[in-house]
Amino acid sequence: MGSTKGFKLGLLPKIIIAIILGIVCSLFFPVWAARIFATFNSLFGTFLSFIIPLLILGLVAPGIAEMGQRAGKLLVITLLLAYASTIFAGYLSYFTCELTYPIFLTKDSSLALAALSESSTVSPYFEIGAPPVFGVMTALVLAFVLGLGAAYSKADTMIKVLSDFKEIINLIIRSIIIPLLPFYIFGIFLILGIDGQVAAILKLFVKVIVIIFVMHISLLLIQFIVAGVVSGKNPFRCLWNMLPAYVTALGTQSSAATIPVTLQQVRKNGVDNGVSSFTVPLCATIHLSGSMLKIVACAFAIMWVAGLSVNIGLYSGFIFMLAITMVAAPGVPGGAIMAALAVLEEFLGFDATLQALMIALYITMDSFGTACNVTGDGAIALIVDKAYKFGEQPNKKA
Length: 398
Hints:
- By secondary structure, this protein is mainly alpha-helical.
- It has helices spanning 11-25, 31-68, 73-104, 116-119, 136-153, 156-194, 198-231, 235-241, 243-252, 259-268, 273-286, 289-305, 312-325, 335-348, 352-363, 366-397.
- It has one domain (10-119, 133-393): Proton glutamate symport protein, CATH 1.10.3860.
- The protein is built from 16 helices and no strands.
């Protein structure tokens, strides 16, 4: 029976195949044929620009509304820990990139990425204008107003409307954006190859992937050392116990799909069953420190190599807003980077071409980010468990 279902290729293999085919085809494709894909990319880029504000509204508003209905000390503690961990990962990534990129990456004056779409020798046959209904910041503010308003007023009808809108946005992501991404990436690398810029991009990809992997391991060590100090447990043994969850996440590329394994390993670390049942599913949604680290590193790399301005002031606003937006990331492969597109555009000025390169660079190591997120959930569970047991002590004495 299983053989009748056929083999389903995941998003990561599709992206890798698209990159390879784009580079190979750039060696012999005539310009007229490349312009067909340039036209597709122009239309798809216009659609992305149009949908991004709606995506932010449709993901963030219901997320806030639904979370606002839940209360309790453990929720507050878990939220603060997840947000602090994600913020820390962003700054760890920024300062590591600031130290390492000048050593391992070389600036390429020909890689004028920000103006690539205007300077390319391959132009689309036609373009269609479809400006967004409202801007990105308007969407973010509106999302907070509607989400918080619906939560605190207990407006069940509005919460239902926001939830339905979220399903529509998720459907668009799953059924339109994600399936078409490989073709979009193919077109980007086809044009880059024809313009003679693909070699610099590939060098960038390989070096950045290695640096990010080392940062992921370092982040997990820091998270579990802190959790070990707070909980009084051996951090290295606890981290080792989370290895099955890490490996499972590498295969599934989904925090949600890995929840059963994460729960099992968190309980193996001695976390209370009730605490783990609450913390692990919640963190699978709101704790994306690995994704944050990766997005900051990828964005920094593209901007630094292209000679664009990079500074801590610019990235601080980006990191704090991205940490909030990560909560809205849909549970599909590449969901985090899709939720981050609006913040990349608003704070770092990433146009459709830069966003496409970000998507390609991010997804090539998407499973490692998910594995880092899931494993880090185990560290948060240890700290929440300690807070829970500490709060229970007076009651037991009484």
